[in-house]
Specification:
The complex is a heterodimer of chains A (332) and B (378).
Chain A lengths: L2 E2 L10 E2 L6 E12 L2 E12 L3 E5 L6 H8 L7 E6 L2 E2 L4 H7 E4 L11 H11 L4 H14 L15 H12 L6 E5 L7 H16 L3 E5 L3 H4 L4 E6 L2 E6 L1 H7 L4 E7 L5 H6 L4 E7 L2 E6 L6 H10 L4 E6 L4 H9 L2 H4 L2
Parallel strand pairs in A: 5-10, 5-11, 8-9, 9-10
Antiparallel strand pairs in A: 1-2, 3-4, 3-6, 6-7, 11-12, 13-15, 13-16, 14-15
Helix pairs in contact in A: 3-4, 3-5
Chain B lengths: L1 H17 L1 H21 L7 E7 L4 H11 L4 E5 L6 H7 L5 E5 L3 H6 L7 E4 L4 H34 L21 H31 L1 H6 L5 H30 L8 H25 L3 H19 L11 H9 L1 H15 L3 H25 L6
Helix pairs in contact in B: 1-9, 2-7, 2-9, 7-9, 7-10, 7-11, 7-13, 9-10, 10-11, 10-13, 10-14, 13-14
Classes of the chains: A alpha/beta (332), B mainly alpha (378).
């Protein structure tokens, strides 16, 4: 049994872990300060075995810095974490035995072929020759790189590079995987294939911590930690986040003239925030202030040409945008 | 663990082989440079052009000029026209030296009195001027000795009188022809070896950081010592190949014989490689980009090393504080060993101090670099 902390909603500050299995990643007050900039600010969370834990947040929120600390790439300024039961500061080498890591940028050797990259990383992970041969074949098959073994990694397509990087990260069959924006720059079909692999591994007990900017990918995660300004501002399952992360009511407003109208809508009393949604505007309103009709009337009163107002349910993207808003506005 | 080191070595080897530019820089450039620079680096001054203004126009003045030009070191041209042209010849660089023979040259000479000639020297190129002046003075001395001998011969024949004379019969050991190639070319080998191995090493680790591959390597259980050994060993091999190629060029193309032991030369070169690789590694732990590595290696290491190691300027002539620094430069020890082995054929008894200094520096530099290397990104 373990506890985790959802900072957003006081009612849910303490929740039981769903699986009830032992936590594999425990982050305890992890902090990273670069000069005068606090990139990661006292993070607390834990991830049970076999969970896909998604890390969401705007660029520069501290997602990569957190992953890098957990992998032992960066030292922590304060706080600590255990990964696979080993302390990241005291026992970084033990941690490294148990993790696979894929960085944002393609970081394999571009001037080595697919098999040479696999052989190198297999070798430095200390795989014996026969096991390496087995794993290399398995990884090539898994990553769909059959027939491309002799190609230089630098000449592969983005999707192939990404699958090769994943392959090299799981050569030693680590029980824990850290994936930092693994699918940036990859086409939707390849992304889906990639997530099939991730989900398959998770179903076999691999714990995955992944950062992403894609909302459809976030839906695949067991739980999502939302990080903004180095702080964890929400932590829950995707459906709970959609339900609870945004406490305002959401309306989709279609205006005749969008030009400059966003500021005018936001100045209407009771409207908390707006965001563009396609050709329309998503308007977050203080709960109980408006109905679709009364909002439309309020806007028309203000001289705006309103075509339609519709009450809509909060999507993960809406939640993301509200959570990423500056602290003052977010606290509605 | 051996297999981890092996993996790094294999990887490095493939990468080096696959980068023809790198191999070119490592193996072909030093040899080509040795060939070109080896023929260029010489402190010998030959063919100094001498302009002569003969105001006497006598048999004696012409005879003296003929004697000077037959010395072989000075190329003589005659100046005519107004006297202002003398300086013009120096400024335009047509002449390095101007010899002005006074109008009363032969008259004074025939009266048996000492006679002076004026020599204008192009001091803008001081080493050249000094050498040229030496040649001219030597030629003049020879000519005046010849004149004196004529008189003495007459005296001996007529009066049976002989004045005592002392002459220095010099012989240069180790380098009988005093050919500066024998001195400079082996030292140039040391220099090129340093440039090639140090710069490439300094960039090797930085490149991995820049390209992000270091990040992927750090998260593996690979030890820093294994990574560093894997990075440096290929360069040790390349360094020895470089030395071998350079030796062939020096011995067979420049005809500079190796008088000392080949084994000692290789052993000491190995010690020197510890230094260049250690320095390269140290630079790579201090900088963030390959460009910075290049700059630091060039300005803060290569320049002072080349200028202060005694490669061109004798350390003995430097002011004391700079000399103290110069005496400590690893390249100095190696150059002394290499020159000693090539020219004097010294043995272990003569070079062990320098070899020990190289070893100490090498171990120190490498050790420091390994200590400074961290398996972290920050």
């Amino acid at each position: 049994m373990f506890l985790n902390v959802g900072l957003l909603n006081n009612k849910r500050t303490i929740t039981l872990n769903r699986n009830g299995t032992e936590p594999v990643i425990v982050v305890d007050g992890l902090t990273k300060v670069f000069g005068r900039f606090t990139a990661v600010d006292h993070l607390h969370f834990s991830v049970p075995r076999g969970e896909i834990f998604g890390f969401l947040g705007p660029n520069g929120a501290g997602k990569s810095t957190t992953i890098r600390m957990l992998c032992g790439l960066l030292s922590s300024t304060e706080g600590t974490a255990t990964v696979g039961g080993y302390d990241i500061n005291r026992d970084p080498e033990r941690v490294r035995q148990n993790i696979g890591y894929m960085s944002q940028k393609f970081s394999l050797y571009k001037d080595l072929t697919v098999s040479e990259n696999i052989a190198f990383f297999g070798g430095v992970y200390g795989l014996a020759r026969t096991r390496l041969r087995e794993r290399a074949a398995a990884v090539v098959r898994l990553a769909g790189l059959t027939g491309l073994e002799k190609r230089l990694a630098g000449t592969l397509s983005g999707a192939h590079q990404q699958r090769l990087a994943l392959g090299c990260a799981i050569l030693h069959e680590p029980p824990i995987l850290f994936l930092d924006e693994p699918t940036s720059g990859v086409d939707p079909i390849s992304r889906r294939l990639f997530w099939d692999l991730i989900q398959d591994m998770a179903s076999r007990g691999v714990t995955v911590l992944v950062t992403t900017h894609f909302m459809d990918e976030a839906e695949f995660c067991g739980r999502i930690g939302f990080i903004s300004g180095g702080r964890l501002v929400a932590l829950d399952t995707p459906s709970a986040l959609k339900r609870d992360a945004v406490r305002e009511e959401l309306y989709e407003v279609s205006l005749a003239d969008m030009q400059g109208s966003r500021e005018r809508v936001e100045s209407v009393p009771g409207v908390v925030a707006t965001s563009y949604f396609g050709r329309n505007l998503h308007v977050f309103c203080r709960p109980g202030t408006f109905t679709a009709e009364s909002l439309q009337q309020a806007l028309v009163r203000d001289g705006m040409g309103v075509q339609s107002v519709e009450s809509v349910s909060v999507s993960l993207e809406d939640a993301f945008i509200r959570l990423a808003a500056p602290a003052g506005k977010a606290a509605a | 663990m051996m297999s981890r080191l092996q993996s790094v070595l294999t990887k490095e080897w493939i990468q080096i082989r696959r980068d023809p530019k790198l191999l070119g820089i490592l193996l072909i450039a030093p040899v080509l440079q040795l060939l070109v620079l080896g023929s260029a680096v010489t402190t010998d001054v030959r063919e100094v052009s001498l302009a002569v203004r003969d105001n006497d126009h006598s048999w004696h003045s012409r005879e003296m000029v003929r004697a000077i030009s037959s010395s072989g070191y000075l190329q003589t041209t005659m100046l005519a026209g107004p006297g202002a042209c003398d300086a013009e010849a120096l400024i335009s660089g047509r002449a390095g030296l101007v010899l002005v023979i006074p109008a009363d040259f032969s008259r004074t000479l025939l009266r048996g009195l000492p006679v002076g000639v004026q020599v204008l020297v192009d001091g803008a190129d001081s080493s050249f001027a000094v050498q040229g002046l030496n040649y001219l003075q030597k030629a003049l001395r020879l000519y005046s000795e010849r004149l004196a001998r004529g008189i003495v011969d007459d005296a001996v024949r007529l009066r049976g009188f002989s004045p005592p004379t002392i002459t220095a019969q010099s012989r240069a050991w180790f380098n009988p022809a005093l050919d500066s190639h024998h001195y400079m070319v082996p030292a140039l080998m040391g220099l090129l070896l340093m440039v090639a191995t140090m710069v490439v090493t300094s960039m090797a680790l930085v490149k991995e950081r820049e390209e992000g591959t270091m990040e992927q390597v750090i998260v593996t259980p690979l030890r820093p010592s294994e990574l560093i050994a894997g990075k440096l060993l290929p360069f040790v091999v390349i360094g020895f190949v470089e030395i071998t190629l350079a030796l062939l060029v020096i011995v067979f193309l420049f005809d500079v014989p190796l008088k000392g032991s080949l084994l000692l030369l290789y052993a000491c070169s190995g010690l020197f490689l510890l230094n260049t690789l250690g320095l390269g590694l140290l630079v790579s732990t201090l900088v963030k980009t390959q460009q910075q590595a290049m700059l630091v290696a060039t300005f803060f290491i290569m320049m002072p090393f080349v200028l202060l190691s005694g490669f061109t300027f004798p350390i003995e002539n430097m002011p004391t504080p700079i000399r103290v620094v110069a005496e400590l430069i690893p390249l100095k020890f190696y150059l002394r060993i290499v020159r000693g082995l090539f020219l004097k054929g010294i043995g272990l008894a003569d070079l062990w101090r320098d070899a020990l200094a190289l070893l100490a520096w090498g171990v120190g530099l490498l050790g420091l670099a390994v200590l400074k290397f961290r398996k972290r990104l920050d």
